[in-house]
Task: inverse folding
């Protein structure tokens, strides 16, 4: 044991609530015999002799026991404990530690040898120090003393060194850890941002595994592709091949679909470390889930082959969404919107300008007859307009646009393009989520745009292609200099953006349902002057672009808002990679549901539908009604995911969504040794990065002296049976004796 204790000491006290009773205790002790004498002085029948004295004595003891119970006495017990510091020798057992050097010894095997050397030196210089042996990758998997230390194997899929260290200290919380010696290659596949080192008060010394990746290694890195495309689009697969080799060479990168090679290109590299970009373009002709695989032909002397192949999954949707924007004249607002969605191949955005000859389609010589014919009207998924002219065209009785919206189309109104004093047709005001107030005038202000809490759960803000935080992105842009109009928000509208400043506090973007369709209004003049283009800085261009794409897609879908929705950010993940899934739950009134559990379920994609795993999703504090769950590392294969909610109305289930776990292991994306990461991690805890040659100096320099700690225990005598049982016994004896002499 790492501690020993002296003989405990005890002291008696009482609660603060009974302090007054303790002050009156001497008076109460004297008053108790007087009360007992008065009680038995005159009784019928009269009691004399020893029996009377016994009854008086029992009554005194009962009163004293009752006083003691009311005083709520507390017994404090303390003992001095001598703590013997211990040391944990922790080995990273992730799969990347199985990489072998030219001689055949793996990093893991070398780490076990180094751990044995360190343990021997600790016993040599600190003989009484307990030494623990531990192994793990994301959390401490095995731990024990030297005699029971398991050698294990390097099979952990994924590494989170921060979580590993925190779990190790929690496991040995009572063992007075003085130091942790970590043996690892430093290649953490998780950034560990969810696990803070704030509570880790144990210094960590790190030992880097030998860089034994072999003379040559080729690997796929930064593979990028859209998760969804439309049928007939050109699908671009981009990324880079990373090569490390002592000499120049060449190989072939192949793209396979269904086991058949459909394209290939050659990759040449120079001596040393280099990266080579690649790009494949394929045409998607069939609707459904398209699967591809990238494969690097291995070099002759390559040792690590598990990063040479990667799976790719893309959902191919039916057709493009057709958007028709009605604009009076060419303007920056129109250009800005078209540019924002230019990267989304699902959207076909046509702009129509008013000319003396009629409505002309931008970029062509074609004229558009208005109102549209019935078949042309049905082909439009979303109408975008603004200004009095466009609103009059859309809101007219003969246009048929409002009827198309009620049947499932969308209508996006750019209040920014309206006149200085916005005047809307009555038919538009009746269906819009926000409308100008009576006598509204544009107000110029420098405003901050924020995301309301209830908007985080809306599909429009389901940003999947960017890892940046939306609130952080909005806060980084400067105050937006633009004109806004004081507007009224409809009672059934969803507010998605709000502008706040010293002069205004008004909705910016709101949406609502109209029949089977949806209507949105953007407040601000004009859109490009809101400086949303600054979201394109620092690589955050996807935030605004994907928001607009999501808005277009959501409005064009039509139908009622789903009560339960599951978001799978990526249809393909590498083996060992954690996937963060989000869900949104609404009650029968379409309000955030926070009372019922939402379960994440997954099944094998073999058509049987048999659920093989189930996980309760945690509440997402940032999203009202939202749920979040980290899906653990699943074995390689094809799965289907869904979420389920059960409430008073019955059971709700989402549709199955595909998920492919690639045989490509996340541990081998980059099988090098990251000494800088290990050094930074050790410094953050007060330790350092050391070599195996420094084990002797490290063992001698540890401060492993015993220290004394006083441990205090508390026993509430008034809350247990310590006083209650004696009181009941005395009352029972007095009652029995009174009954015997005929007083009862």
Result:
């Amino acid at each position: 044991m790492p501690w020993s204790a002296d003989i405990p000491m005890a002291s008696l006290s009482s609660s603060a609530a009974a302090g007054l009773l303790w002050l009156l205790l001497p008076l109460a002790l004297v008053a108790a015999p007087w009360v007992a004498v008065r009680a038995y002085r005159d009784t019928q029948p009269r009691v004399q002799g020893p029996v009377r004295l016994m009854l008086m004595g029992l009554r005194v003891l009962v009163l004293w026991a009752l006083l003691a119970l009311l005083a709520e006495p507390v017994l404090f017990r303390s003992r001095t404990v001598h703590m013997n510091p211990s040391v944990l020798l922790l080995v990273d057992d992730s799969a990347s530690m199985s990489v072998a050097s030219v001689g055949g010894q793996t990093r893991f095997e070398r780490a076990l040898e180094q751990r044995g050397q360190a343990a021997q030196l600790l016993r040599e210089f600190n003989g009484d120090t307990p030494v623990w042996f531990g192994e793990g990758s994301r959390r401490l998997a095995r731990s024990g003393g030297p005699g029971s230390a398991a050698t294990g194997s390097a099979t952990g899929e994924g590494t989170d060194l921060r979580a590993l260290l925190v779990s190790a200290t929690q496991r040995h919380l009572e063992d007075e850890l003085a130091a942790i010696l970590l043996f690892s290659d430093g290649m953490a596949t998780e950034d560990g941002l969810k696990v803070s080192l704030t509570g880790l008060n144990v210094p960590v010394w790190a030992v880097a595994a030998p860089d034994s990746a072999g003379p040559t290694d080729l690997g796929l890195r930064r593979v990028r592709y859209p998760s969804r495309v439309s049928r007939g689009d050109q699908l671009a697969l981009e990324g880079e091949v990373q090569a490390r080799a002592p000499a120049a060479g060449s190989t072939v990168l192949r793209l396979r679909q269904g086991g058949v090679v459909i394209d290939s290109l050659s990759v040449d590299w120079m001596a040393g470390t280099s990266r080579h970009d690649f790009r494949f373009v394929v045409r998607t002709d069939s609707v459904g889930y398209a699967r591809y695989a990238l494969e690097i032909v291995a070099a002759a002397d390559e040792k690590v082959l598990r990063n040479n192949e990667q799976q790719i999954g893309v959902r191919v949707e039916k057709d493009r969404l057709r958007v028709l924007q009605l604009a009076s004249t060419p303007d920056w607002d129109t250009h800005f919107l078209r540019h924002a969605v230019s990267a989304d191949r699902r959207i076909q955005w046509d702009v129509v300008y008013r000319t003396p000859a009629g409505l002309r389609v931008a970029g062509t010589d074609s004229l558009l007859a208005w109102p549209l014919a019935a078949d042309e009207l049905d082909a439009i998924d979303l109408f975008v307009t603004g200004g009095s002219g466009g609103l009059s065209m859309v809101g007219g009785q003969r246009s048929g646009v409002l009827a198309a919206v009620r049947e499932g189309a969308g209508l996006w109104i750019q209040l920014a393009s309206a006149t200085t004093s916005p005047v809307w047709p009555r038919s538009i005001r009746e269906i819009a989520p926000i409308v100008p107030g009576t006598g509204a005038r544009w107000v110029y202000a420098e405003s901050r745009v924020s995301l309301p809490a209830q908007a985080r759960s809306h599909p429009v803000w389901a940003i999947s292609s960017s890892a940046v935080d939306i609130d952080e992105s909005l806060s980084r842009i400067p105050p937006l200099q633009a004109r806004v109009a004081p507007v009224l928000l409809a009672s059934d509208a969803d507010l998605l953006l709000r502008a706040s400043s010293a002069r205004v506090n008004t909705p910016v973007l709101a949406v609502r349902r109209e029949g089977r369709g949806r209507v949105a209004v953007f407040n601000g003049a004009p859109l490009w002057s809101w400086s949303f283009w600054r979201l394109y800085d620092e690589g955050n261009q996807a935030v605004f672009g994907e928001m607009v794409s999501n808005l277009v897609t959501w409005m064009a879908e039509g139908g009622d808002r789903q009560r339960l929705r599951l978001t799978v950010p990526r249809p393909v993940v590498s083996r060992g990679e954690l996937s963060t899934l989000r869900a949104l739950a609404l009650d029968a009134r379409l309000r955030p549901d926070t009372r019922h559990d939402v379960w994440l379920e997954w099944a094998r994609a073999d058509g049987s539908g048999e659920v093989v795993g189930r996980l309760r999703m945690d509440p997402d504090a940032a999203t009202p009604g939202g749920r979040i769950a980290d899906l653990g590392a699943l074995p390689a294969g094809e799965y289907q995911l869904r979420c389920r909610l059960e409430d008073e109305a019955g059971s709700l289930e989402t549709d199955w969504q595909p998920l492919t776990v690639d045989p490509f292991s996340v541990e081998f994306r980059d099988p090098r040794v990251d000494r800088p990461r290990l050094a930074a991690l050790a410094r953050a805890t007060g330790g350092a990065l050391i070599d195996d040659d420094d084990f002797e100096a490290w063992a001698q320099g540890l401060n492993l002296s015993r220290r004394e700690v006083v441990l205090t225990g508390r026993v509430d005598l008034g809350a247990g049976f310590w006083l209650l049982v004696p009181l009941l016994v005395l009352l029972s004896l007095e009652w029995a004796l009174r009954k015997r002499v005929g007083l009862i």
